[in-house]
Amino acid sequence: MTDPWVALEPGTDPAERARMLRRAHETFTEAGTVQRPVRAVVAESWRRSARAGVGPDGTASVELTDGELRAYRAEHPLARVMPLVRELMGTFADDGRHLLAVCDAHGRLLWVEGHPATRRRAGRMNFVPGARWAETAVGTNAPGTAVAVDRPVQVFTAEHFVRRVQPWTCAAAPVHDPRTGRVLGAVDITGGDGLAHPHSLGFVQAVARAAESQLALLAPRRPTAGTAELTALGRDEALLVTGGRGIRLSRRHSEILVLLARRPEGLTGDELLCALYEDESVTPVTLRAELARLRRVLGPGLLASRPYRLTVPVESDAAVVERRLRAGAVTAAATAYAGPLLPGSRAPAVARLRARLADGLRTALIARRDPDLLADWAYAPWGEDDLDVWRALAAVRPTAAVRSRLAALESELAAPHVPYAAGGAAGPRRATWSQRPRP
Questions:
Q1: Is 347 exposed, middle or buried (0-12, 13-18, 19+ CB in 10 A)?
Q2: What is the pLDDT of residue 356?
Q3: 366-to-195, 215, 363, 394 alpha-carbon distances in Å
Q4: Tens digits of per-residue pLDDT, 392-424?
Q5: DSSP secondary structure letter of residue 381
Q6: What is the pLDDT of residues 278-322, one digit of tens each?
Q7: Which residues contact 405 (CB under 8 A, 6 or more apart)?
Q8: Contact 200/207 with Cβ under 8 angstroms?
Q9: 400, 406, 409, 413: CA torsion to nearest 10
Q10: In what order do the strands lie in the sheet with 169-176?
């Protein structure tokens, strides 16, 4: 096949391919082995689905309804491009008796629109706004898999992991924030076998690119005029967006910006020195030289001294998560959390902030007892060794895969303490994602 993301090669008989895929799906669900003609992207997705504890007879759960759904959609960045998406996809969906759908980065469907009869059929499998269609929830499907692998993808009939979805064919493409490159969600077209064509995959990809272009043209929404935006979750080198330009910061400059963003009144040189350096032998001269380099990177007028402070308000993604947690908006906080704060940083103050934010969110998730939110954390790189979260997940979703992973973690916990290969700390478990040395 020339394009592994396209479901059918030219000239393939759809009915025969569907029969072969159903047999392969049965073999996988019974024996765990993948047979031809299953594509590699689908085989890998099936394996991820099985590891997440998804059953072939499962169904999607509806997480957001009524007012909560309306409020979440209104605040979501993709709401700003929905008129464009409808213009590009609406007629195609109506004419072909298909559905257009848009999901967020966690696979939650935000909009599902199209032919009324097709919507009613899709509603019987909970393909409705507010339902969770992440791979970790319902297995292989175009919108969920597109955000999982960050690629446009087609899913044809029995390539779907859950059986009740197998009469459908869909194609989806991720949409990215044009400033940060992060996945915001995906656009999807869902319908019958006729969508198993390269044109449908190219179509949703073109719509996704158009949506990204539209987002780039729209003025970013900010709390106040002149506010800069700092993205530091899940990345070692933060991105600062200010004055219409994006600045990728070095690791040390990222640490400084994170600390100054939290203290608009500023920090003295001594305070910054203690916050940034474990080594007490580092001199103020070293810090002043680093700040001089940062001032050149930022440009004139953004970094003041005596005390060191930023001259414009900075909205950070970490602050967004903190605010949502304080407000009790756990789902919204989890959605905004893209990973540990500057995970490779060893600056003492940054490490404390990173731990406080992660612990606050994971505590809220455990208390919330939402199996999908817990699964998102547990199967993320930073949660794969989080024993408390796995225990909470096992209590609300006791699948064989979850129980097996929990048993392995508890076995590690009971093992004799041995030194870590890196870092010098001792303990029975591997270092967490936020503690591992970064490249």
A1: buried
A2: 96
A3: 40, 35, 5, 11
A4: 999 998 888 788 889 989 988 887 654 433 333
A5: T
A6: 877 778 898 889 889 999 998 888 889 889 999 989 999 999 999
A7: 378, 390
A8: no
A9: -140
A10: 109-114, 99-104, 183-191, 169-176, 153-156
Separation between Cα atoms, residue 231 and residue 240, nearest integer Å = 7
Q: Are 4 and 41 in contact (CB under 8 A)?
A: yes
Tally helices (H) and strands (E) across the chain: 17, 13
Q: What are phi and psi of 25, to 5 degrees?
A: -65, -45
| The total number of residues written for the chain in this structure | 439
In the three-class reduction of DSSP (H, G, I as helix; E, B as strand; rest coil), residue 412 is classed as helix
Under CATH, to which class is 228-316 assigned?
mainly alpha
Two structure tokens written together for 410:
């508890």
Of the chain, the percentage scoring pLDDT greater than 90 comes to 51
Among residues 217, 203, 207, 246, the alpha carbon closest in space to that of 96 is found at 203
Region of 53 (left: φ > 0; alpha: ψ -120 to 50; beta: rest) is left
379 CB neighbour count, 10 Å cutoff: 19
Q: Which residues on neighbouring strands pair with residue 102, listed in sequence order? A: 111, 187
Query: Is pLDDT at 1 greater than 50 in this prediction?
Result: no
At residue 416, the pLDDT reads: 65
157, 163 Cβ separation under 8 angstroms: no
Q: How far is 94 from 90, CA to CA, in rounded Å?
A: 6
What is the rounded distance in angstroms from the CA atom of residue 338 to the CA atom of residue 325? Answer: 15
Extents of the domains making up the chain: 14-217, 228-316, 328-427
CATH of domain 14-217: 3.30.450.40
Q: DSSP string spanning 279-342?
A: -TT--HHHHHHHHHHHHHHH-TTSEETTTBEESS-EEEHHHHHHHHHHTT-HHHHHHH--SSBS
Q: Strands of 157-295 (E only): list them.
A: 169-176, 183-191, 228-231, 239-242, 245-248
Q: Each residue of 212-226: pLDDT tens digit?
A: 998 888 744 444 456
State the pTM of this model: 0.62
The answer to whether 256 and 269 are in contact (CB under 8 A) is no
Q: How far apart are CA 237 and CA 345, in angstroms?
A: 10
In sequence order, the 6+-apart residues with CB closer than 8 A to the CB of 356 are none
Quick one: 419 exposed, middle or buried, by C-beta within 10 A (0-12, 13-18, 19+)?
A: exposed
Q: How close are the terminal C-alpha atoms of the chain, in Å?
A: 35
